[in-house]
Prior knowledge:
Chain A has no helices and eleven strands. By secondary structure, chain A is mostly beta strands.
Amino acid sequence: xxxxxxxxxxxxxxxxxxxxxxxxxxxxxxxxxxxxxxxxxxxxxxxxxxxxxxxxxxxxxxxxxxxxxxxxxxxxxxxxxxxxxxxxxxxxxxxxxxxxxxxxxxxxxxxxxxx
Amino acid sequence: xxxxxxxxxxxxxxxxxxxxxxxxxxxxxxxxxxxxxxxxxxxxxxxxxxxxxxxxxxxxxxxxxxxxxxxxxxxxxxxxxxxxxxxxxxxxxxxxxxxxxxxxxxxxxxxx
Lengths: 115, 112
């Protein structure tokens, strides 16, 4: 079975440009999470969805960040305009509901560099 | 805000040695997970602990959940170069909570 699929794997862009990261979760999973990982701050939760509905976006840094999940098999994270401090690895993860939280399945990440 | 602090942040030891990594918080967690991450990949689940005082073993890895469910440890016996990676603990708040908060990780290097 295919795992969580993210694209692009690497993105280099200039400050001020729009960046769109994409994620296809594992089929049948009803939760989708977007995390950002940096050396300084570790793995931070940005937003998560349940059945395509955003549940908690308190980790989204500011209005420049937005995320959508138009259907069960696709989600996007958009940064507009991008800034150098947005440089990080962005992970998408999905899971099924579990009483004890359950296993989170991560994609391979999208490494973003903003110059 | 629930925070998880891991220590040490970096650890480099020789093959065959034992080590322990700690994950601490002032908050109570309903469950705690340990993940391992290799370069260029996403984290992969190693174990979930749920009950205070619980001990789980995975070959040479032993995981313990604190009695008060505020802390956890990972002990590796006779470390091998294949154990090299970033070890992350992650906690869930209330029972049934689906959101995980991650510690900053312990970067482990096992030298042959």
